[in-house]
Design goal:
alpha/beta; Rossmann fold; five-stranded mixed β-barrel; 8 helices; binds S-adenosyl-L-homocysteine
């Protein structure tokens, strides 16, 4: 079984890539697919680039060219629900495209001709990721160092599970995030890729999960220290989480993973 680990930006995956000892780079559609092993599992790690089309294309290549049997998306997102704060982690149960609207022909948010607006994440993988998150993130100082924790005012990360919404827009005004909260009151966080990959994985019948660290509150301060947060916090959290999840999976049946 080969598992794909995807993030939109280099900073989100850099810590994880550094841990793949036998990686081989395969270039497809201008993207580098890193084929190798992480914690005993066969993985393909790749940067999708930002946005729904880039993410959908990357997912399709992973499925068609690399034959991956599951896709896990990781990275950062903007918190929408009141208790979802910077430094928290969101594991998606369902994913929706908040900028998709073919009404009145189809209900708002529904992906035309599929009958779905909310695409389910794989329950088993998502539950395992949420459990691992609760165990691994108990000591942010140990993972990040005291200075990073102080600089970003981080506390013990809460792990949230629920609706993650995606769209081709960096949500960075209080008015925009308020409008999203009103339209989709149960949305925990917003990003720009997850729901597109969920749709592709649904069409292929391949399990999908998404786990995101909250980098901002999708408000007027969303730009803040964005890039530094992604490298200093989110990238470390992704490695800790995804790494621990992979390590806990049963070893592959073939002998490829050494
Ligand atoms: N200012 C950044 C913008 C990157 S786009 C830069 O110049 O590099 C934001 C990326 O992080 C996307 O991949 C998206 O999935 C995620 N993200 C984080 N916060 C977000 C928000 N408030 N709205 C939308 N996407 C967000």
């Amino acid at each position: 079984m080969t598992i794909a680990i995807v993030a939109a930006m280099h900073e989100e995956l850099s810590a994880l890539l550094a841990q793949m000892p036998d990686e081989q780079r395969v270039r497809v559609a201008g993207r580098d697919f890193w084929v190798g092993h992480l914690n005993g599992q066969a993985v393909v790690a790749v940067l999708s680039r930002i946005g729904k089309v880039a993410a959908a294309l990357t997912a399709t290549v992973l499925l068609e060219r690399f034959g991956v049997q599951a896709i896990v998306f990781t990275g950062v997102a903007g918190g929408l629900a009141p208790g979802v704060r910077v430094g928290d982690v969101v594991v998606a149960t369902r994913l929706l495209q908040h900028d998709l609207d073919a009404s009145p022909i189809f209900p708002k948010y529904e992906v035309p001709l599929t009958g779905h607006a909310r695409f389910a994440a794989d329950t088993e993988i998502s539950e395992a990721l949420a459990e691992v998150a609760a165990e691994v993130l108990v000591d942010p100082v140990a993972l990040l160092g005291q200075k990073v924790v102080d600089d970003f005012g981080l506390r013990l990360p809460a792990v949230h599970r629920g609706l993650l919404v995606s769209g081709d827009r960096f949500v960075s005004t209080a008015a925009e995030s308020a409008a999203l909260r009103l339209a989709l009151p149960d949305a925990l966080a917003v990003e720009m890729e997850g729901a597109a990959v969920a749709q592709v994985c649904h069409d292929y019948g391949v399990p999908f999960a998404a786990v995101r660290t909250i980098s901002d509150r999708a408000d007027d301060e969303a730009h803040g220290d964005f890039t530094r947060f992604v490298s200093a916090v989110a990238s470390r959290y992704s490695l800790a989480l995804v790494g621990a999840w992979l390590a806990a999976l049963p070893p592959p049946e073939d002998d490829e993973a050494t």
